[in-house]
Design a protein that fits this description.
Chain A: It holds the Pfam family PNTB_4TM. With 88 residues, chain A is mostly helical. Chain A contains four helices and no strands. In chain B, helix 5 packs parallel to helix 7, helix 6 runs antiparallel to helix 7 and helix 8 packs antiparallel against helix 9. Classes of the chains: A mainly alpha (88), B mainly alpha (272).
C-alpha cells in the first residue's frame, strides 16, 4: 500500500513539472492529449472484463471497454488534428 | 515481470508525451509517443491479463474505434472543445464502471480498497455528467449563459454532503445499492457543478473535469492494484490541475471566480 502511495506522490510532482512551461497556444492540445492519456483506464477495463465471472461484471466491463476505447482513439486523433492545424 | 516492464515503458511514453505536448516544436511527436505508449499498455493487458471473454473485449474495442475515429475525424475545428469534453466524459464513466465491476467481483475487501472504489465511482460520475453538460453548452443545445437553479447553491451543497455521507456508509457497510446511489448522486453533482459556469469559461471547466477523470483513473489504479493506472491517472490529474490554473490565469480570472462567480452576479439566465 505504501508502495502505491509512493508512486502516486512522485507522479504528482512529475505531472506538475512536465507542464509548468507550456505556451498559451498549446493549452487546448495539451488538455486534449492528457485527456487521451487518461483513456488508459482501457487497461483496467480489459483486465476486469477478462476475469469477469458474473453477467453483471461482464456487462459493466464491456461497456467500460467500449467507452474507454472511444476516449483513447478519439482523444489521440482529435489532438493530432489540432496540432496539424498549428503547423500551417 | 515482463508485464510490469511494459507498463513502465508505457508510463515513460506518457511522461514524454506530456513533455512534448508542452513545446510547439515537439507537440505532434509527443502525441504520437502517447499513442504508442497506449498501444503497448493495451496489448500487454490483453495478452497477459485476459482469462476469458477475449472475443467480447475485441468486439467492444472494435465498436469503440468505429465510433471514436469517425467522431474525431469529422468534427469541425470550431467544435473540437466540446468533442474533447465528450471524450473526457466517457473516460470518467469508464473509470466509474470499472470500479463498480471490481466491487461486485471482490466480495470481502479491505477498507482501503473500498475507499478507492467509492472515490473512483464518485469522481468518475461527476466527470461524466459534468462533461455532458459542458458539451451541451458549447454545442448550444442549451443556453451558454450561467444557469442558476432556484436554491442551486443549497442543492449543490446538499448533493456534496450526501455524497460524502454515502462514501462513508459504503466504506463501512459495502452494499451494491449504496454504490449505485453514490453514482447517481455523483451524476447530479456534476450537473450542479457545471450549470453555473458561463459559456466563455466552459473550456476551463472542461480542463478541470479532465483533471478529475485523471484522479478517478488513479483511484481505480488502487482498486485494481495496477501501477500504470496510478501513474498515468495521477500524471493527468496533476498536470490537468496546473493547466487549469494556467488557462484561468491566461484569461485574467481566478478559478474560484470562474466556477462560483455566477452565484454572486446579478443577471440570471432563464431555466433550461
Amino acid at each position: 500500500m505504501i508502495d502505491l502511495l509512493t508512486i502516486f506522490v512522485l507522479a504528482v510532482f512529475v505531472g506538475f513539472e512536465v507542464v509548468s512551461k507550456v505556451s498559451t497556444i498549446l493549452h487546448t492540445p495539451l488538455m486534449s492529449g492528457a485527456n487521451a492519456i487518461h483513456g488508459v483506464i482501457l487497461v483496467g477495463a480489459i483486465l476486469i472484463t477478462g476475469s469477469a465471472e458474473s453477467t453483471l461484471e461482464l456487462v459493466l466491463g464491456l461497456l467500460a471497454v467500449f467507452l474507454a476505447t472511444v476516449n483513447v482513439v478519439g482523444g489521440f486523433v482529435v489532438t493530432d488534428r489540432m496540432l496539424e492545424m498549428f503547423r500551417k | 515481470m515482463i508485464v510490469q516492464l511494459m507498463y513502465l515503458v508505457a508510463a515513460l511514453c506518457f511522461i514524454l508525451a506530456l513533455k512534448g505536448l508542452s513545446s510547439p516544436k515537439y507537440a505532434r511527436y509527443g502525441n504520437f509517443i502517447g499513442a504508442f505508449g497506449m498501444l503497448v499498455a493495451v496489448v500487454t493487458a490483453y495478452v497477459h491479463g485476459v482469462v476469458h471473454n477475449g472475443l467480447w473485449i475485441l468486439i467492444a474495442v472494435a465498436l469503440g474505434v468505429a465510433v471514436g475515429i469517425p467522431a474525431a475525424r469529422s468534427v469541425k475545428m470550431t467544435a473540437i472543445p466540446q468533442m474533447v469534453a465528450l471524450f473526457n466524459g466517457v473516460g470518467g464513466a469508464a473509470a466509474a464502471l470499472v470500479a463498480l465491476a471490481e466491487f461486485f467481483a471482490v466480495p470481502d475487501s479491505s477498507v482501503m480498497f473500498r475507499l478507492a472504489t467509492v472515490l473512483t465511482v464518485l469522481i468518475g460520475s461527476v466527470s461524466f455528467s459534468g462533461s455532458v453538460v459542458t458539451f451541451l453548452k458549447l454545442q448550444e443545445l442549451m443556453t451558454t449563459r450561467p444557469v442558476l437553479l432556484p436554491a442551486g447553491q443549497q442543492l449543490a451543497i446538499a448533493a456534496g454532503v450526501s455524497s460524502v455521507v454515502l462514501c462513508a456508509l459504503t466504506v463501512v457497510t459495502p452494499t451494491g445499492l449504496l454504490l449505485w446511489l453514490l453514482a447517481a448522486i455523483g451524476l447530479a453533482l456534476g450537473v450542479l457543478f457545471v450549470l453555473p459556469v458561463g459559456g466563455a469559461d466552459v473550456p476551463i471547466a472542461i480542463s478541470l473535469l479532465n483533471a478529475f477523470t485523471g484522479l478517478a483513473v488513479a483511484a481505480s489504479g488502487y482498486v485494481l492494484a495496477n501501477t500504470l493506472l496510478i501513474v498515468a491517472g495521477t500524471l493527468v490529474g496533476a498536470s490537468g490541475t496546473i493547466l487549469t490554473r494556467l488557462m484561468a490565469q491566461a484569461m485574467g480570472r481566478s478559478l474560484a471566480n470562474i466556477l462560483f462567480g455566477a452565484f454572486k452576479a446579478a443577471p440570471v439566465a432563464a431555466l433550461g
